[in-house]
Write a structure and sequence with these properties.
The complex is a heterodimer of chains A (about 290) and B (about 350).
Chain A: H1 2-28, H2 36-54, H3 58-81, H4 89-111, E1 127-130, E2 137-140, H5 141-163, H6 165-175, H7 177-182, H8 187-213, H9 219-234, H10 240-259, H11 266-278
Antiparallel strand pairs in A: 1-2
Helix pairs in contact in A: 1-5, 1-8, 1-9, 1-10, 2-3, 2-8, 2-9, 3-8, 5-6, 6-8, 9-10
Chain B: H1 6-13, H2 19-31, H3 37-51, H4 56-78, H5 87-103, H6 108-126, H7 135-155, H8 157-160, H9 185-206, H10 209-219, H11 221-226, H12 231-257, H13 267-280, H14 285-305, H15 310-324, H16 335-341
The chains are: A mainly alpha (about 290), B mainly alpha (about 350).
Chain lengths: ~290, ~350
């Protein structure tokens, strides 16, 4: 049982890193970006291709998996996303679905539609067990690694958002763009940086998650719903909301698949709808913002 | 399917018929009148399976997706509710009709009614989920509904055949007279007839005072509430009607192809119909029909060239569509002017 809890936490942490960039674009910039999974997929494929074709070690791949989607995100933000910030939500939905379709077909074309496997280094493959009987805690080393990386990132992000100059600029730009611009904050640069950073995080999540979630060209469509659930359920006014939502979702999903495999993802969707009917703005939001 | 009578509609709004009320009613009636080109269009549609009999199957498909798009238009174009899960009702109608034909009786019209009724019930339940929250919340719950049904259809394999789909659906003749032929002509006419009936019903529906209140809700929900429109129940009703129509489209698909599979619930169904509607134009009933024709022909053409990667071109089309502007795409001479303004 503890093992399930542990796996659920690892899964939830991973989802959190993947969804965090989306929480920022969707919650803060009010842009419904369904193409977020495509950035995650980009990170995953960068890692897989580098490891397979160029024998780059796993740990070196991770920063590259962050940088490449971040640059991609920066370019796309500047060229395509920015003109759409003030368009209706329907336009944003259509645009980002279109982008996702293109990414899926392009990856399929260049890499092929087969599932990609990641060769983990030896020291991440083991498994440690503590305790015995019903309370056995089996920890896969890789999952332990995921939790460590994600926890470190979360703490760093919380620090950046609440303690640094950039964090306060971002919060100002989000709360009121016009006033922030009037105070001399370059809102465009702040948003560009944030978008790129969010895309980079997604890429890193994709690279870390390739082993756990699987990686094939339909990745953005398959996991889009999970990212969206994290953001919608968590609310978008802080990063603790999505974090708790991601952990809840991860544990519910792993436990549901373990105990009642017949129902599969059914539990997660039902849980989400119930929560959203109960609290349409998300579980942890600061009051209504329609 | 009885049309909403104007007197009923005015009674609902509660205002006595004043001078402006008369004028409003006249305007609604004028908007509901047939244009000269419309009978020609429908005649051409009904003649097409006869003239181009090798394309009957595609005419049938176009009629079905057109009906599906019109149903989404009620929700999106007229009421302003963004939905990413309209396939839920489409698929529910398809499975209900197919199961009914397989286990109860093979008559198409009764099956169609069953599909419509089942989808309407589902729509009435699901309408509770779209009344609150922001666009994002609605996107999520509609998407979630479709995914739950997909998951159910997949897991209840003793009933639905699971991932293999529900096979062995054999339909009886329409009205006891017209057998479904291999050419697909009967299927095309059957779908076209249902489309026409539903189209007339929907037009009557949106051109009534009731429809006008829907547009008021779309344009400004707070103001609509302030002038006394019961927003919640209106949304619930229109969502149910739209679900019933989507169910009809799904039932037609299952009946004319004799098959229902998980595909009817998939995300791409919802995305496609959204695209169809947007290409054709929202808030305009012929938009769905036009979009269905353009989309199906484009799909046929592109997937003949690149069978595997046609979604790439679909995506590119969507991106360009949004960046250029939905209403500008078909007016290339306005592109440069906008480029300078932006």
């Amino acid at each position: 049982m503890l093992t399930i809890l542990f796996d659920g936490i690892a899964y939830g942490m991973l989802l959190f890193i993947l969804a965090l960039g989306l929480a920022v674009t969707m919650g803060l910039m009010n842009f419904i970006n369904l193409a977020h999974g495509a950035f995650a997929m980009a990170g995953g494929y960068v890692t897989v291709l580098l490891m397979q074709r160029a024998d780059v070690p796993f740990l070196v791949c991770l920063p590259i998996a962050f940088v490449v989607p971040a640059l991609l995100g920066a370019v796309l933000e500047r060229t395509l996303y920015r003109p759409l910030y003030h368009k209706p939500h329907l336009d944003q939905v259509l645009f980002s679905i279109g982008l996702t379709f293109m990414a899926v077909a392009a990856v399929d074309f260049f890499v092929g539609s087969t599932q990609q496997l990641i060769q983990l280094p030896q020291w991440l493959r083991g498994r440690t067990e503590i305790g015995s009987g019903a309370w056995t805690l089996g920890m896969g080393h890789y999952r332990l690694f995921i939790i460590a990386v994600c926890a470190a990132l979360t703490i760093a992000l919380q620090y950046v958002l609440s303690r640094t100059r950039f964090g306060s600029r971002l919060r100002a730009a989000v709360d009121d763009q016009r006033v922030a611009a009037g105070m001399g904050i370059n809102v465009n640069v702040v948003f560009l940086t944030t978008f790129a950073f969010g895309s980079g995080l997604a890429g890193l999540g994709g690279a870390l998650g390739a082993e756990v979630l699987g990686l094939d060209p339909t990745f953005p469509l398959k996991f889009m719903i999970y990212f969206l659930i994290v953001v919608a359920v968590g609310g978008t006014s802080s990063i603790t909301g999505p974090l708790l939502a991601a952990l809840l979702l991860g544990i519910a999903d792993v436990a549901g698949k373990y105990y009642i495999p017949k129902l599969g993802a059914f539990i997660v969707y039902t849980l989400m709808i119930a929560i959203l009917i109960w609290r349409p703005q998300g579980l942890f939001s600061r009051g209504a913002k329609a | 399917m009885s049309a909403v009578r104007p007197s009923e509609g005015t009674a609902v709004t509660g205002a006595p018929l004043s001078v402006s009320g008369d004028r409003a009613q006249a305007a609604l009636l004028r908007a509901a009148r047939w244009r000269a080109w419309e009978p020609l269009l429908w005649l051409a549609a009904f003649a097409s399976p006869l003239l181009l009999s090798q394309y009957s199957a595609i005419v049938n498909e176009i009629a079905i997706v057109a009906l599906f798009a019109i149903s989404l238009d009620l929700v999106l174009g007229y009421t302003g509710i963004v939905s990413l899960g309209h396939a839920a009702f489409f698929g529910f109608g398809a499975y209900s009709a197919a199961l009914f034909a397989k286990h109860v009786m093979p008559d198409p019209l009764v099956g169609l009614a069953v599909g419509i009724a089942a989808a309407a019930v589902l729509g009435a339940v699901a309408s509770l989920t779209v009344q609150r929250g922001s666009d994002l919340t609605r996107l999520m719950v509609t998407l979630g509904t479709a995914l739950i049904l997909l998951e159910l259809a997949n897991k209840l394999d003793w009933l639905t055949g699971g991932a293999d789909g529900l096979q062995g659906v054999v339909m009886g003749p329409v009205l006891g007279q017209f057998e479904f032929d291999l050419m697909g002509r009967t299927a095309a006419w059957y779908s076209l007839a249902v489309l026409l009936l539903c189209f007339l019903f929907v037009r009557r529906f949106v051109r009534s005072p009731f429809g006008a209140t829907l547009e008021a809700i779309r344009d400004n929900r707070l103001r609509a509430m302030a002038v006394g429109i019961p927003v919640g129940s209106r949304i619930a009703l229109v969502y149910t009607v739209a679900a019933a129509l989507a169910g009809a489209a799904g039932a037609l698909l299952a009946q004319t192809t004799g098959f229902a599979s998980l595909d009817v619930f998939e995300f791409h169904r919802s995305a496609d119909v959204l695209l169809i509607l947007v290409v054709g134009g929202t808030g305009w009933l012929y938009g769905g029909v036009l979009g269905a024709i353009v989309f199906k022909l484009m799909q046929d053409f592109l997937s003949a060239i690149t069978p595997q990667y046609w979604t790439f071109w679909l995506g590119l089309f969507l991106v360009v569509l949004v960046l250029v502007g939905r209403d500008r795409l078909f007016k290339p001479w306005t592109w440069r002017r906008r480029g300078r303004a932006a």
